[in-house]
Write a structure and sequence with these properties.
Elements (H helix, E strand, L loop, with lengths): L2 H9 L3 E2 H6 L1 H6 L10 E7 L10 E3 L5 E5 L4 E5 L6 E5 L6 E6 L5 E5 L4 E5 L12 E4 L5 E6 L5 E5 L5 E5 L8 E5 L8 E3 L2 E6 L4 E6 L5 E5 L5 E6 L5 E5 L4 E5 L6 E6 L4 E6 L5 E5 L4 E5 L6 E3 L11 E5 L5 E6 L3 E6 L5 E6 L10 E5 L2 E6 L4 E5 L6 E5 L5 E6 L5 E5 L4 E4 L20 E6 L6 E6 L4 E6 L6 E4 L5 E6 L5 E5 L5 E5 L4 E6 L23 E3 L5 E4 L6 E6 L1
């Protein structure tokens, strides 16, 4: 046990927040596996996993499978025989929505959020910090890419654009647009001078003659086709992200047969030289290997949670605890004792819109997404959707107001009242509060529902905001990038410092606090890419009626439980 840990254990309850802040250097030096504070037991309910959503795939010359994570901003190599993983391109450069190995051995990928095509030498596969070159910029939503047989490089934009480009492999000249408005030309492959790929928004497979660019539909009948690749015999493999089907398609006739069916939220595929088919599932963070003859499949890496964000605990009629998790590509429930995970809905296979935060109020689960600009409401017992409000300005969290409106916390630093039908609030109705510094979470201060506690990640503090518009009150300050907020049965607030991994229990009335764990460093605090909200994925904290604290690891995909002894 380190001397720092011994010192922290002696702090105990009733220590001023100023003293806790002074202890920060020692805590920061503690390892992520350090023993918890004596009165609290730390358990890992769900183990970490490599990917924070897995998208682009490529088979490297050494046989490893490269998987790209847009949100996790990494390219990770998986040994398909052992499942061992290693980071090839780390944050923030990794951000790969699609990956291809170039004719010269370079690893080339699309940085979806940054709008760039990037490349690194093949030596990155063996380590050594290979340099990264930007081949194209100014292409938000850049999605899929491939080289033709002559070494010319092509890429498409999807979701944040809809176009086909030729990319200069040297990066010397800007991208050249060839087509626009195809219908979402997603994961494609080129053979000769013919490009074949799926039209995400039209449910078709299409081909493009790159010498005279135009779109020709070659197969139909898909719900949402996500990717298409060729097998050695010329057949086309295609994924349907909604149904989970992997289909083999005759490109000449359009006839399709189902090779196998996986869970929904499939995103990309790659075919190895031996014919093995690899498919990525973004909601599971898993890459599957499929036998091309039998359709038998198995995961090649450990999965679990995808991008765990907001978390809320609900007590069941039998006295158990069910956690409701916003997992970006899924809305999930987790048994608080066993850690058993169940899907309520998955993005793309349902109306779910990339949930990032979760709250519970008035018998509803409220899922917020700053990326999608919406709040969805669900019945916690049945999973049925109860309402959906779109067109919001970067909502970070939401609660139900007593007057029937939503209270929406925004990344811009406001709490707004929003009608449940999505209509605008009265023109003369000012926000409840403005000028908060990167707020990420709010909870009711008590059953009277007269004010909310808000954690301001940007200001390093927690404030109390009256819903009648009176001046806010500072509750606690001097915190290091706090995210997540929940209330213990004794009325204290719990939050986690995402940079230090310290978990604090704070008395909002006396401004005193208790350090209850130093074991979350490296598990929370996933950093965003440039242009994204600094908090990126809100760290989820939930407290059940037994006083147990659950923390979602947005950085490593884990779920941690702190139990008072």
């Amino acid at each position: 046990m380190s001397c720092y840990t011994k010192q922290l254990r002696r702090l105990g309850r009733g220590v001023s927040l100023a003293v806790l802040a002074l202890a920060a250097p020692g805590v920061a030096a503690a390892q992520s596996g350090a023993a918890p504070i004596a009165e609290w037991q730390l358990d890992t309910v769900i183990q970490p996993s490599p990917f924070r959503g897995v998208h682009g795939l490529a088979v490297a010359p050494d046989g490893s499978v490269l998987g790209g994570s847009v949100v996790g901003q990494q390219i990770i190599a998986i040994d398909p025989k052992t499942g061992a993983s290693r980071v090839i391109v780390d944050r923030p450069a990794g951000q790969a929505d699609d990956i291809v190995i170039g004719p010269d051995g370079r690893i080339v990928w699309t940085a979806f959020l940054s709008g760039e095509v990037r490349a690194t030498p093949g030596s990155a596969l063996t380590g050594g910090g290979a340099p990264i070159q930007v081949l194209a910029t100014g292409l938000p939503g850049i999605n899929s890419l491939d080289f033709d047989d002559g070494g010319r490089l092509y890429a498409t934009r999807v979701f944040l654009g809809d176009a086909l480009y030729e990319i200069d492999p040297t990066g010397a000249t800007p991208a050249k647009q060839l087509l626009e408005g195809m219908g979402g030309l997603n994961g494609f492959e080129i053979q000769g001078r013919t490009l074949r790929g799926p039209l995400w928004f039209k449910g078709d497979l299409a081909e493009v003659n790159l010498d005279a660019p135009a779109v020709t539909v070659i197969a139909s009948g898909f719900k949402v086709p996500a990717a298409a690749n060729l097998e050695a015999d010329g057949h086309l493999l295609a994924l349907d992200t909604v149904t989970g089907e992997v289909k083999r398609v005759d490109a000449a006739t359009g006839t399709a047969t189902v090779l196998t069916t996986l869970n929904p939220a499939l995103d990309n595929l790659a075919v190895a030289p031996d014919g093995t088919i690899y498919v990525s599932n973004m909601a599971e963070g898993v890459i599957y290997a499929i036998d091309p003859k039998t359709g038998n499949h198995k995961p090649i890496n450990t999965g679990g949670l995808a991008v765990p964000g907001g978390l809320v605990a609900v007590t069941t009629p039998g006295g158990g605890t069910v956690l409701h998790l916003a997992d970006l590509f899924a809305y999930r429930t987790i048994d608080g004792d066993s850690g058993k995970v169940a899907d309520v809905a998955r993005a793309y296979a349902s109306n779910l819109e990339n949930p990032m935060n979760a709250n519970a109020d008035m018998g509803r689960i409220l899922l917020s997404s700053w990326f999608a600009g919406g709040v969805q409401m669900f019945d916690p017992a049945t999973g049925a959707e109860l309402g959906h409000v779109n067109g919001l300005a970067a909502p970070m969290d939401a609660l139900m107001a007593d007057d029937g409106h939503l209270l929406v916390l925004t990344a811009g630093g406001t709490i707004q009242r929003v009608a449940l039908d999505g209509g605008a609030a009265p023109a003369d109705q000012a926000p409840v509060v403005e000028h908060l510094a990167m707020p990420t979470r709010m909870i009711w201060s008590g059953p009277e529902r007269r004010s909310v506690y808000v954690v301001e990640t940007g200001a390093g503090r927690i404030v109390e905001v009256p819903v009648d518009g009176q001046a806010l009150r500072a509750v606690a300050g001097g915190l290091d990038a706090p995210e997540g907020l929940a209330m213990l049965p004794d009325g204290r607030l719990v939050t986690v410092e995402t940079t230090t991994g310290r978990v604090l229990a704070l008395d909002p009335a006396t401004a005193t606090g208790e350090l209850i764990s130093t074991g979350l460093k490296g598990r929370v605090g996933l950093m965003g890419t440039a242009g994204m909200p600094p908090a990126y994925i809100p760290t989820g904290i939930a407290v059940d009626d037994k006083g147990r604290v659950f923390i979602a690891g947005d950085n490593d995909g884990s779920l941690t439980r702190l139990t008072p002894r």
